[in-house]
Structure formats: C-alpha cells, structure tokens
Amino acid sequence: MRLIQHQFHPQRPKTTTSSASSNSTMAPRTLIYLLTLAVGSLSLTSAAALPDANPVAAPVPFSIPENVEILDLRTDEDKLSNPLSKRTNGAVYVCKGIKFDASEGCKLIYTSFNAPTNLVNTDYNNVISSAGADEGTVCQFYDGFYNGDCGGQGSLYINHPGKDDFRQYSWNNGAGTWNDITSCIKCTW
Ligand SMILES: [Ca+2]
To answer: How far is the CA of 138 from the centre of ligand 1 (A)?
Structure first.
C-alpha cells in the first residue's frame, strides 16, 4: 500500500487591515452597552474616596468563614440602631497572619461610617498582616490612635479584595512595613 504524502498548507484567513469604515458608525446596542459600563464604573469609583497609593499584585482572594468571630467596634448609636445579629455595612476582614491564614486568628471588624475605629484595646492591635474589606467598602488603616482619631505615619488603603501581605507595603518612607502596626481603621462605603 502506498501512502500519499500530503503536505498541508493552511491558508491564512483573510484579514481586513482597514477597519476605519466599521468604526465610524456604532450600533445603538453597542452604544447603550458602553454607556452602561461608564455609569457602572462611575458608581464604583465614587465609593473610593482615596486611590490606592501603592498597589501590588492582585492578592489571594479571601473567603470569610461562616463561623467568623465578629469584632463589633461600631459607635454605640449604630449598635443600638442595628443589632449585631444583622450583617452591617463597613465590615473589614482582618487576619493576624499573611494571606488570610486563619490559623493565627481572623476577625470580621464592624465599623461605623468614617469613624475612627480604635484597635488599641483589642487583641488585634499591632498584629494585622492581611485584610480585605467588603465589596464597595474602602478603608484606611493607620498605625496610631491619638486624641480620639486615627493618626501616625500615613495610612494603608484597603478595599476589596484587599491586601494579603502587609510586609509588602512600605511604612514611613521605608522605615518599616505595614506589618503588625495597625492600630486604627476608618472605612467608608
Ligand atoms: Ca501578624
């Protein structure tokens, strides 16, 4: 039996190099889609009052365990008007270990809107190494709490999905990192 050797030369698909004519008119449906995208991104950015000053590679996404312990640090007024049993806005998931490793401990901190949330007298003072806020919530982490307000050397931006290794973020112009120094949190949404 004789095999016929057949060499296959795939034909290159024809490509149109000029697409100027197709761009000049935009289908109404495409236009509506683009407008929807624009409006969507506007509402997203409005939640972020301050941009992330030092973004790093996308973190390992966290998933909050069902039996997570809640640390309710909201104002007394908020606690009264909204009981703990109800999930509230402005929650930020914090872990003592990097990469949301729960073995050292993680908690879901409830904050009040734009309120200085003092960690000094909690077991989460100067230990947080990874954190992520609820979607739509934006927080600033500070290394100090003074005179009833967050303070210190700058702040670390935390949104969703957050930052999974605080050792990667320079604190005080390189004097150290943000690892294990958070003492105060402010969140908005
Ligand atoms: Ca830590």
So the answer is: 21
